[in-house]
Design brief:
This protein is an alpha+beta fold and 406 residues long. It is built from 19 helices and 7 strands. The strands form 2 sheets. The protein has a 5-stranded mixed β-sheet with strand order 1-2-5-4-3. 51% of the residues lie in helices and 8% in strands. It is globular and about 55 Å long. The relative contact order is 0.11. The longest helix is centred in the first third of the chain and has 32 residues, at 104-135. A hairpin with a 2-residue loop joins β6 (235-239) and β7. It has helices at residues 3-17, 41-51, 58-66, 71-80, 84-93, 104-135, 145-149, 172-181, 227-232, 249-261, 270-285, 292-301, 305-315, 333-342, 347-350, 356-363, 367-379, 385-392, 396-400; strands spanning 141-143, 162-166, 184-188, 196-201, 208-212, 235-239, 242-246.
């Protein structure tokens, strides 16, 4: 069996058994199983990519199916990638729902449930989460989740498990007091390296509230994104019927890309790429197209050039037309090899083949952070001592080097 087929088969087997694919990553269970033929991997991945487009092309969906897409694998992978409603929509547009067979009822039920949740549960949860804060003269930024879902073509296409709010650390205690008075209960406090407090409310028990004062743990910090600076750029907006604040579009794209590619995430969910495609399309539709030069400036100043470039390269498969020259990517060595795998059409089904530490190294802009990653790996017994020794002999200018090297 070819490597890609082995990876897809392992994906199904590990999910059905509840075994983790890569420790610490966003690897969740996938229901069922399927016999995976190597020839179907690219067609199946192509079907998933097409589903991520703001307007999936029915003919492209039909070609993927005719090309041997494994529908059972597609359904399982769509669940893992949090894009089951998007897959249902694309098959419906192609008038190909019958191909789902025994999976049709379950996939329709999932899509219907998320649509109902978007119409009823999310607005109520937003009201419960945001209004107590604004009543206390706080100005929370809604990022990810509901803020992104508003740009999807219709309610329910963007599943979510929580609501993420951002406030400065100096406001965290006051915000928790206001939320407690409104019925929210802490289920995980911001202790140690945690950069958020997680809360639950008895009226919306299926949705958690994550109250952030940071974006990444200090030991995993690979960017220069500053949450206070981001919050200072907040803009008023109505999100799911509630008055709140959001990030400006350009900063939002950088934050979403960094979130998708950060350590322990590593672009393992296609819905994060669909988010970018939906935002770009909605911006063009609303007469406020993305200023790619501004996105580049934000990415460069926050050491997010590589992760943003990778996200946009992936998003091109979902219809995003971002200028390639503005976001150069590594092409040589360990970093180039990782980029080649990440940007493969089969990535949604073969991401288990790329070790998380190699992807973290590849996506990190700062050469000092990359060296730290290698030193940690060497100390952990990953057998990369030769690579570390070679790098330690490089002059500093070579370590800094052009972004397309090493």
């Amino acid at each position: 069996m070819a490597p890609t087929a082995r990876s897809a088969a392992r994906l199904l087997a590990h999910r059905s058994k509840g075994s983790p694919g890569r420790a610490g990553r966003h690897d969740e269970h996938v229901r069922g199983g399927a016999k995976v033929e190597d020839g179907s991997i690219e067609a199946t991945a192509g079907l998933l990519w097409e589903a991520c487009r703001p307007d999936p092309d029915p003919d492209s969906v039909r070609r993927a199916l005719a090309g041997g897409a494994d529908i059972a694998l597609a359904v399982s992978a769509a669940e893992e990638h949090r894009m089951s409603p998007l897959l249902w929509r694309s098959l419906d547009a192609a008038e190909a729902l019958d191909i789902l067979g025994a999976n049709q009822a379950a996939l329709k039920g999932t899509a219907d449930a998320f649509a109902m949740e978007a119409l009823l549960l999310i607005p109520h949860a937003m009201d419960l989460a945001v209004n107590p804060l604004t009543a206390a003269s706080l100005e929370p930024v809604v990022f990810k989740g509901p803020a992104v879902a508003a740009r999807y073509p219709r309610p329910g296409l963007r599943p979510m498990e929580d609501i993420d709010l951002l406030l400065p650390r100096t406001d965290h205690g006051r915000a928790l007091s206001a939320l407690a008075a409104a019925g929210w209960t802490v289920v995980r406090a911001a202790e140690g390296e945690q950069y958020d407090t997680v809360l639950t409310h008895h009226e919306v028990p299926s949705l958690l509230l994550e109250l952030h004062f940071g974006l990444e743990a200090a030991s995993q910090r690979v960017t220069a994104l500053d949450p206070v600076t981001l919050w200072s750029h907040r803009q008023p907006a109505v999100v799911a019927g509630t008055h709140a604040f959001v990030l400006p579009q350009n900063e939002e794209l950088v934050v979403l890309a960094a979130h998708a590619g950060k350590p322990h995430h590593g672009f393992v969910r296609l819905v994060w790429i669909a988010d970018i495609a939906m935002i770009v399309r909605a911006a063009a539709r609303d007469g406020n197209p993305v200023d790619w030069e501004r996105v580049r400036a934000v990415a460069d100043s926050t050491r997010c050039m590589t992760v943003v470039g990778a996200a946009l390269s992936m998003a091109r498969r979902a219809g995003v037309d971002a200028p390639t020259g503005l976001f150069p990517l590594p092409t040589r060595g360990w970093r180039g090899a990782a980029m080649e795998k990440l940007l493969s059409v089969t990535w949604p089904l073969t991401h288990l083949e790329l070790p998380g530490y190699q992807l973290n190294y590849a996506l990190t802009d700062d050469w000092i952070q990359r060296l730290k990653i290698l030193l940690v790996l060497r100390g952990s017994g990953y057998g990369i001592g030769g690579h570390v020794r070679r790098i330690s002999r490089w002059p500093r200018r070579a370590l800094r080097g052009p972004r397309s090297s090493s």
